Amino acid sequence: MMFDRRHFVKAGIAAGSLSLASTTMPLASLADGGKDALIPDYDLPPAHLPRVVDIDPKVGPWEVHVDPNRFYMYWTMPGNKAIRYVTGVGRGNLYHPGEFYVGRKEEWPTWTPTPDMIKREPELYLPYRNGMPGGLDNPLGARAMYLYNSKNQDSMLRLHGTNDPRTIGGAVSNGCARLVNDQIVDLYSRVKLGTRVVLNPKIGGPPPHS
Questions:
Q1: Which of 51, 72, 104, 202 is the most exposed place for a label (fewest CB within 10 A)?
Q2: pLDDT tens digits, 93-128
């Protein structure tokens, strides 16, 4: 079942204003060693910090919902609450709404462009056809969650990180939804394999599929 914005977020938040009960969400501490220690503190505007918000009681807990029209990603919790992150989503017709589940999780993942990406922009993606090792310069960032469809197939869509805050809050990607690295580390720590992920439709965009 897909949820439109009216049935997901309570009226005050859906209109673009924060609930009086909304609070900034502190992120889990990053690991002391390894590559996580290299993740910087991103200079984000206050509006781009994670917040706890009220949501419609019809929405179950422990799910990820993406609103591409307001560039929000929600981690739903009990008590009609959710952590709301500001996300970047797929540009143009590269955003694919539907219902998925997290079929795989990777820390500091290797990134390989899809055949469609190489076909669209070979000068940009062909050099990486055999993959790019994980790291701060990797387009998937610090964490990636791989979305599978109802047929247990990899949809090639990801929830992933980025080290470029300028790509947050807009339609910028080749179809995936992204958070800055410290925020994707936080969300990754909460999401389990098998978690339901709903990519809600864009206004005027294609209908959802699964």
A1: 104
A2: 889 999 999 999 999 999 887 788 788 888 777 877
Distance CA 136, CA 141 (A): 6
Residue 48 annotated in active site: no
Q: Determine which one of 7, 48, 176, 209 is catalytic.
A: 176
Which phi and psi angles does 128 have, rounded to 5°?
A: -110, 20
Compute the Cα dihedral for 164, 12, 82, 55 and give only its sign: negative
pLDDT given for residue 122 in this prediction: 84
Catalytic, 65? Answer: no
Assigned CATH class of 5-199: mainly beta
**pTM, entire model:** 0.83
Average pLDDT over residues 145-155: 96
Residue 93 CA to its chain's centroid (Å): 17
Tokens at residue 3, please? Answer: 């949820």
Q: What DSSP state is assigned to residue 209?
A: B
CA nearest 186: which of 21, 52, 20, 18?
52
